[in-house]
Amino acid sequence: MTRRSFFQVSAGGAITLPQFEPRSMLHVAEHPTARAKFPVIDVHTHLFGLGRKVAAESSQERAELQQIAQWMDECNLATLINLTGGNSETIPGIRKAVAQFGNRFVTGAEPTWSRANESGYAQWQAGELAKCKREGAISLKVLKTLGLYLREKGKLVKIDDSRFDPMWEAAGALDLPVEIHTGDPGAFFTPIDRFNERYEELQRHPEWSFYGRDFPSRHELHEARNRVVARHPKTKFVFLHVGNDAEDLGEVGQWLDRYSNLNVEIGARLGELGRQPRTSRKFFERHQDRIMFGTDATPNAGKEYPQQDLKPAMYRCYFRFLETEDEYFDYAPSDVPPQGRWKIYGIALPDSILKKVYHNNAARVFKLKAV
Ligand SMILES: [Zn+2]
Questions:
Q1: In the chain, what are the domain boundaries?
Q2: Dist. CA 152 → ligand 1 center (Å)
Q3: C-alpha of residue 44 to centroid of ligand 1, in Å
Q4: Residues 175-203, mean pLDDT to the nearest whole number
Q5: What is the CA(371)–ligand 1 centre distance, in A?
Q6: CATH of 110-366 among 3.80.10, 1.10.3470, 1.25.10, 3.20.20
């Protein structure tokens, strides 16, 4: 570009960040991966969205599940675990809605936080979990509510508050693995300024920032969660989103080394894993028995959450990352990267590890049928 043309562009006004949509000029091998090489268990989905208005008999619900089942056939997805099944009152409705699909959709239970401040809550919740299990629940899902939203007399309740001990113990005794989401990406705990690597995402959703106010640091949240795992060695834990520390796989690896009752899931963290492919590949090799496939998929998540939209295009980003050596490709099916402005690289896992990550680890932990 000559000085003159540079001046002309500037004089016309610089483009803004959202207007910048560079197209890669690289010519590198591409291996779009339409179908997973081995059957997949997705341990992290929200089949009915996060608010559970499950109308088992609704024809719209049925059509949506039928469409999803068809996509599962196309992509080689054997089973989806719907984490947000609610409690013993909502789970039967969900079970009814998915009954015609055999074992393709299974459901987890959730704590009833609305009762957390009542006396006798812990015992009640432990009994409630037993009921959920009888209704078919296979896990206990704990959202980031615990640590970031749940309050008592205005103060945030700590993740390792001892009132929850009977609940964690009951999950262990009932063999309901705890799928827990704690904290969020590192960038959500730093100022929303020009140094923030998820600047545009946080511009769109300033409410996702936990920087300042009375929020604990991400490190404190992780430490409190880890104390729970240490205190309940007979309870199995699955840290969702790579423990929300996919930016530091060395740290996550130390947690896995320290706690034998711990596993991790990779949902919505392709962007982190895929931009450090050599570190990721070593992480998968070293912890190959403890990493599970998951996506955080939600039907009709839409354009704004392409990294979670329960459609084949989203799954194919995961397959390509795990199975190929492709370079510099999108971690989500969208023109502009939704989480941060970077691309990813495949880690080409060998078949023996792929089978574990796609299927066998989840089958073992959740006692699902292995293939
Ligand atoms: Zn989720």
A1: 110-366
A2: 24
A3: 6
A4: 96
A5: 25
A6: 3.20.20
